[in-house]
Amino acid sequence: MKRIYMIVFVAVISAFSSAYAAEGVKVDIPVVLKDVKVVFNMDHLAFDGDKPVGMKYMLQLKDRIKESNATGKIIAIFHGAAAYMTLTDESYNKVRKVTTGNPYKKLIADMLAAGVEVEECANSMGANGWVNADLLPGVKVNGGAVSRLIMLGQEGYIAIEP
């Protein structure tokens, strides 16, 4: 599977459209996307302030795909340390020992509304004692994150490690 780390991904997204280039920047290699197949491996915590970096870039990439008239599919696979981000308010509160509810539920809803497929790992769920009812609406359960990443790689998806 091809892997792109976030530093490279940010550079690609920034250079994707000249509209996003800084004043005085000459783009030597324009980035043109046609059929985008990306899977975000959401297995660790990485934040820009309070916002998870991966979720932020998934939404930006969806915008870039639309702006470029490309076709594309983005899948987000939550597991490991980031698995709790897909939980309902009640389940989130219990797991995180808070009373605030899930602060990521709006981002997840925005991702789903934008056409991003959001998946949770069955193995992470089992390890934490969660069931499907613990997940936000629209989140699908896959049979195992690592195997799913391999499967998507075999289907030509590029893995992003935010």
Written description of the protein model:
- The structure is a single chain.
- The protein has 162 residues and is an alpha/beta fold.
- The chain has a single domain (3-15, 35-161), classed as DsrEFH-like (Hypothetical Protein Ychn, Chain: A).
- The protein is 37% helix and 22% strand.
- The chain contains six helices and eight strands.
- It has a six-stranded parallel sheet with strand order 1-8-2-5-6-7, sandwiched between helices.
- Helix 2 packs parallel to helix 4 (105-113).
- It is globular, with a radius of gyration of 16 Å.
- 31% of the residues are buried.
- Mean pLDDT is 88; it is low at 2-18.
Feature tags:
162 residues, alpha/beta, Hypothetical Protein Ychn, Chain: A, six-stranded parallel sheet, two-stranded antiparallel sheet, 37% helix, globular, disordered N terminus
Radius of gyration: 16 Å
- The outline comes out as globular
Spans of at least 5 consecutive residues with low confidence: 2-18
Helix content: 25-40%
CATH superfamily: DsrEFH-like
Order of helices and strands: EHEEEHEHHEHEHE
CATH architectural category: 3-Layer(aba) Sandwich
Average pLDDT works out at 88
The proportion of strand residues reads 15-25%
Extended strand count: 8
CATH fold node name: Hypothetical Protein Ychn, Chain: A
* Distance from first to last alpha carbon: 16 Å
CATH class categorisation: Alpha Beta
Query: Which structural category do the helix and sheet elements fall into?
Result: alpha/beta
Number of domains: 1
Q: Report the total helices.
A: 6
- Strands ordered across the widest β-sheet: 1-8-2-5-6-7
Please summarize the sheet with the most strands: 6 strands, parallel
